[in-house]
């Protein structure tokens, strides 16, 4: 498995193999943020096929509760592994470690991740990787359906934070 920064040609492959809700591709929106310098969109590849992704948002979490509790904290968002049978095989861990390494390279001292209250499996992964609860918040986002209607989504989440070392990470 390889982890690489998303390229323009990768968006169509992500849409093909890891679809997204609505008329506008999540992958295209994340790639556009990367192009504006707001994030780095990482893709996990297995045998030439995308099997996971994570976005390191240099601008941090949008939730005011998180910004108040930890100003300037970066966010790892959009972590996912597909198909489901590939979960619990280290792909998510590799994506998180790659995001952490990018943060350390920029001299960032802490990074966070939001986890939905109804996703205990992800919460266990983040705890195992050293992330600790900071604050609860509601993750709010919208998407346009294929018939042009705007749909709002709200997840009750906990934002978790990890202190990063000042030097290179010991990736195991």
Radius of gyration: 16 Å
Class computed from helices, strands and strand pairing: alpha+beta
Largest sheet: 7 strands, mixed
CATH architecture title: 3-Layer(aba) Sandwich
The SSE string, one letter per element, is EHHEEHEHEHEE
Low-pLDDT regions: none
Write down the oligomeric state. Answer: single chain
User: How many domain modules?
Assistant: 1
> Hey, roughly how much beta strand do the residues contain?
35-45%
The third-level CATH topology is: Aminopeptidase
| Fourth-tier CATH superfamily name | Gcn5-related N-acetyltransferase (GNAT)
The 3D shape can be described as globular
Strand order of the largest sheet: 1-2-3-4-5-7-6
Polypeptide structure, described:
With 172 residues, the protein is of the alpha+beta class. It has one domain: 3-Layer(aba) Sandwich (Aminopeptidase). It is built from five helices and seven strands; from the N terminus they run E-H-H-E-E-H-E-H-E-H-E-E. The protein has helices at residues 10-17, 26-35, 64-69, 91-105, 120-128; strands spanning 2-5, 39-46, 49-57, 74-81, 110-116, 132-144, 150-163. The protein has a seven-stranded mixed β-sheet with strand order 1-2-3-4-5-7-6, sandwiched between helices. Strand 6 (132-144) and strand 7 form a beta hairpin. Helix 1 (10-17) runs antiparallel to helix 2 (26-35). The longest helix is centred in the middle third of the chain and has 15 residues, at 91-105. The radius of gyration is 16 Å and the shape is globular. 29% of the residues are buried. The model has no long low-confidence stretch (mean pLDDT 93).
